[in-house]
Amino acid sequence: MTAQVKPQKPNIVFILCDDLGYGDVQSLSPKTSKIKTPSIDMLVRDGMVFTDAHSGSSVCTPTRYGIMTGRYSWRTKLQRGVVQGFAPNLVAEDRLTIANFLKDQGYNTAIIGKWHLNFQYLDPITKKTLSKKSTKQLPPVGAKIPDGPIHRGFDYFHGFHHARDMKAVIENDEVILHEDEINMLPRLTEQSVAYINNQSKRKDGKPFFLYVPLGSPHTPILPTKEWQGKSGLGDYADFVMQTDATVGAIKSALEANGLSENTLIIFSSDNGCSKAANIPKLAEQGHIVSAGMRGSKADLWDGGHRVPFIVKWPNKVAFGSTSNQLICLTDIFATFSDITGQDIPNMSGEDSVSFLPALFGESIISSRAGVIHHSISGHFAYRKGKWKLLLARGSGGWTSPKELEAKDMPAVQLYDIENDFAETTNLYKKHPEIVKELLEQLELDIRTGRSTKGKFSKNDVDKIILWKSGTN
């Protein structure tokens, strides 16, 4: 009798861009995208595109928290904005992360890139905790990190905290050098390729999880000399092209090491394109960063959080396929759980639903009613089916009308996303019953500490303010 052979667990490579708009990928919006992205386009050709994928927030930190934990960040003390570093890790020490989870399933785990979830620095001589003020934002070489990524499930970390202290290059739990920011993207590319090369030589037979949260094309927008002027559209477009080349280098490293066939690649962005890209100037040249969606980074409108999401998994996911099902980046956790065949423990991944069925052309089975959106200022929105409810008078972010500019506008917005992709016609008066239904579901999802079926899970804060701009 032949013993049953367990299917081999795939290697997983997750590439997360920073502030890359849906319309910045040429193959996702060919009519309005003027930036050449051949490497990402090849992932589209070889895999599946999710056309209705959303980041957990319209800004950096909260989205990254959601990816790491499968839980919305507004359940923590971070109710708006992003963290600034030089503070205790936002991910609680006893909170399970995707890195912890995969490590428990026998994976080697690495993060190469931007963390942006806070950690502390200890002075290399006195061992005392350093402040941002005392270091002028740049921790000294030799500073130790007591609560960084390697303390949250990763075996290896090489990168930086966030854009304002990108000069400080970190390896594992130590600042190893100071370097000009323009060299960070080439560094992350080289380190990612080196990690893949090293994994291919290991004899332990373990699969690996490589998380590559790039700092590009976020500010500082610094394409290297090789890429300057390549797009003909300006520095931002040049930087997008250089970022695309990094994707190509990672893909080539997998192929060169014979790892492509058993590697799942996920490519996405943490939120929409930033205004730092000079969106109007790009539009004048025919490039629409949000592919016709309203808004951009920081906003509640879909331009703020509907993101590119591409999955390549040879012999599993059909070439050139598309899914129109609604997903969120918090769903990474439950999907990894499904892939490895190991259930998520209780009180973990409270806002995560597996999209694994969608990869095989099937319907996602979900106990979650909808997806919660969140803006930089902490404004909430709720998406269920074709309906989207916004508890904001304006964008809830950086696009006009901002909340102060929209103080005479209705306190809620309701859009039929299926028929009004650009969110132009507010239907809240026409469909009060939909407003009521979505608002009650949002309140329930907040109150119970989770949006999926399971045990009650307490939020980290007792009071979460739902109406940031008041009600009518």
Protein described:
The chain is α/β, with parallel strands linked by helices. It has 10 helices and 16 strands. α5 (184-201) runs parallel beside α6 (235-256). The radius of gyration is 21 Å and the shape is globular. Mean pLDDT is 96; it is low at 1-6.
For the structure shown, list the relevant keywords.
single chain, alpha/beta, disordered N terminus, about 20% helix, about 475 residues, ten-stranded mixed beta sheet, 10 helices, four-stranded antiparallel beta sheet
Approximately what portion of the residues adopt beta-strand conformation?
15-25%
Task: Count all strands and give the number.
Answer: 16
Strand order of the largest sheet: 7-6-5-4-8-1-9-10-2-11
The N- and C-terminal alpha carbons lie at a distance of: 72 Å
Order of helices and strands: EHEEHHEHEEEHEHEHEEEHHEEEEH
Shape: globular
- Low-confidence stretches are 1-6
* Main pleated-sheet profile: 10 strands, mixed
In terms of structural class, how would the helical and strand content be classed?
alpha/beta
What is the C-alpha radius of gyration, as a whole number of Å?
A: 21 Å
